Amino acid sequence: MQKSSNPEDFCVILRYMARPLSFGKAALTLVGSIIGAGVFGLPIIFARVGFVAGSVLFWLVALLVLATHLLFAEIQLAEKQDMRLPGYAGKWLGRMGYWIMSLVYPVQMVFTSVIYLLLGGQFIAALLFPATDLPLTSWIGTALFAVLGSLVVFVGLKFLAVVEEAATWALIVGMCVMMALMADHVAWINIASSQWSQFFLPFGVFLFALSGIPAIGSVVAITGRSKRASRQAIILGTLGAAFLSWMFGLAIALGLREHPISQPGEIIQALPVAWGWIVPVVGFLAVITSYVVLAQELKTTLRFEWHISRLWAWVLAMIPPYLLLLVVPSDVIAMLGFSGTVFGGINGIFIALIAFQLYRHRQGAQRRMAPLILLLVCVYLIGILTRFSSFSL
């Protein structure tokens, strides 16, 4: 009679078979996190800077973001407990690092929430008031978007967890449909045009559109904290999202031709009239999921880092972005550039410094990683200084 299988061996086989599934889910989670509100600013940037210059800077930023994602994954893999960036800064950089990130991290999320509110308002206005072009319609759309987002954040994220994967696929399919619709309208002659004098200006917008720092922890958890699987999922997810975003930005930009636009909500003008609805639908899908997840993250950070009640955490996560809407400019592209360069740059610098401290405890690792870490810090620092020395993008 054949000997029965060992249950432990069977569990090992199941875990081995499940690895490809967890790897794919982790990569898709990162793609869904990266492709969001920022992708709708790319066509405007490529239209301004040009195909060649824009593409060169875009892929340089993509490599910068990939290196930062991998370093952040190494930091999380080195810890047994789940922490946010302020917690890692406190452990590896001391009390000063903790307090800096405890202030910058929530402020970044508040500022980014303002961008989502403005974009969400533009897309809702395009859905409800397609034939009008009044500032009032955007404010109405923003108010509706804010009410919907606030209710979801108050209740929680359970329903988003159920539809997250479907929403990501719907977003990818919608972007592909938009690119296909623009195929007949592409002005290939525009490929040769480039504004090299403005080469560094889109840095912040590209950084905002490509960064997926909040999702790195989920990637590590989904892959079972496997170092190899986490690295592979981050490489595939980051570069896959970058390629899709690059194709989307170029396809729309090259098809704009006689439709120069300054705001993401105006992309609808470049599509056939019968398909005009797809822009606000896909845009709303991208923005609402990003906004709710970000607001929930802000609420959780305020609860656990600032030790305040659940109700007050919700109030502080919701009210400040609405108040900032009254004073900040309504230029989404300018805000994307500022947020990406300044807040994204600060996050990148702190991740690099934390990684440097981590590698100090590994034999020979500090010497190998020091040049990369120094390069990351210098690039992010130059971006921040350049942003504060100019008033463009």
Please, could you describe this protein's structure?
With 393 residues, the protein is mainly α. The protein starts with 6 loop residues before the first helix and ends in a 5-residue tail after the last helix. The chain has a single domain (24-388), classed as Amino acid/polyamine transporter I, CATH 1.20.1740.10. It has helices spanning 7-34, 42-49, 51-77, 85-128, 135-155, 158-181, 203-210, 216-222, 227-256, 278-305, 310-324, 332-359, 365-388. The chain is built from 13 helices and no strands. Helices cover 74% and strands 0% of the residues. The chain is globular, with a radius of gyration of 22 Å.
Topology:
Layout: H1 7-34, H2 42-49, H3 51-77, H4 85-128, H5 135-155, H6 158-181, H7 203-210, H8 216-222, H9 227-256, H10 278-305, H11 310-324, H12 332-359, H13 365-388
